């Protein structure tokens, strides 16, 4: 955990550094991972985080819905995240809601911002594009462009160098943020630069994107428009999208929709979480702006989401504020997942006050390193009413928050782990939220009726509907029919559903089982699949945690595989027992997978279940089922290996 202690990720502050760049600071470039595969479909964030039963969820094509960009601007950037090796500041900011966003911008006020390797790896692990930033500002910026545009050779070399840097460090493009006047006589050359820059990036980087920030107009004036119009349209046409300034009104949104035409999803409406002269005020009210933007079917650009970290005391409460903030936005997001097999995750967020290996604590040293982040759940947790209301009404100077136990059905647990600095704690409360606790801010699902789990036959008989069919879209509050398809009318329907009057539920009953969504995916495979799961009963209540797979068979029908924790009941048609431990290490399996099969440390309390079963189709969703109310279980590791392939470490 201490390799390359002196290696840091740095920006470029001078034009000379960019023009003379030749594999500058190459020490960390070899640690960057490529962009992972990601589902071509998505699920609406209005889905329930947990339910009494596993059922197919509404899906639509990702190119048929607006996108979500996050622009990370925190205290100038390049803080503890700049190190290749571990930092000892374990409570530094980290982001873990990747599956709800499409693009991440690492922003700073340096001339050329190169995203640190930890951020690149965390984004790429989740199939999210990550952009750096090219920024010039005020008088210094004006002088910089006078120098760049002084000759064709310089601006052409500058464009090429930016693309080479992007390719070398394996990130996906830039936010082009010009906040200074461009002299009128230089505008023709400047536009040629933008043309060349975008065209060269597309040729150099397969995933390359350039997003233009709404600042300079077609005549070179610094005049933020807050909408797409004739004054900034020329740059929108040249680039892959436009990031609108934050001082917009609904009229600006309407104008942008009209002017964008078929490129409406390339319009990213700025959302300032700090709330500076911003619709709705930002903070935990940010959802009001997001809701209005989605009403007009436009993409969003969430700026400075680390507000939940840097503007409050008590950093240990950060993770609960982060859950609360993103839970309010989740109904307006579109959630994607992984496609690449093999797949494995320990759910570690990339930090910890301890470090665990195979369930045993091997270090009590604080650490932070986003390179070590593992794949994160595709569904957010619910939060109970008391926590959300406190977060929303809280005076940020006091730093007082409810305790950990006020978090909902899933929390990130750092006192134990199977691998890394934390794992998931899944909880099933004995009593769901009472009727008088239902509020606009609440995200706890109401279980107003007992639902019987479908049998294998009932699941198989469910016919898949085309992506443009009307599907049942569910949130933790409502059940509404929402169309999904190429025209994406689902966005308006989702917003309308979110605004529907919420009626108190009758006194809830405890459901027969508890299914927690974990991974939305598209794992295609025909043959045997080896699944390994590490779990721990921390309260010694003999709790049981089953893993559930929703599969669309090659015939098109849905089926369910239930990977049973123990042999306590008959598995039925859909049940799969754990593979007998002595047999899992027989010669054939060991030769193929011996190095990959997790082995819990002795007396760690962790146990490993291995499952070997046949799949013929596509795994669409993975979740966990707690069998008994009032129980809690740690989930520390999950892996899927297609049996019969050989892998390299």
Can you tell me about this structure?
The structure is a single chain. The chain has 649 residues and is an alpha/beta fold. It has two domains: 17-34 and 64-314, Glycosidases (TIM Barrel, Alpha-Beta Barrel); 35-63 and 315-649, Galactose-binding domain-like (Jelly Rolls), CATH 2.60.120.260. It has 15 helices and 29 strands. Strands 2, 14, 19, 21, 24, 25, 26, 27, 28 and 29 form a ten-stranded mixed sheet that branches. Strands 4-5-7-8-9-10-11-12 form an eight-stranded parallel beta barrel, surrounded by five helices. Strands 3-1-13 form a three-stranded antiparallel sheet, with no helix packed on it. A hairpin with a 4-residue loop joins strand 22 (470-474) and strand 23. Mean pLDDT is 81; it is low at 387-392, 394-405, 431-451 and 456-508.
Q: State the helix count.
A: 15
Task: Write out the CATH superfamily name of the largest domain.
Answer: Galactose-binding domain-like
What number of structural domains do the residues give?
Answer: 2
User: What's the N-to-C terminus distance?
Assistant: 18 Å
By CATH, the topology of the largest domain is: Jelly Rolls
Radius of gyration: 25 Å
Shape: globular
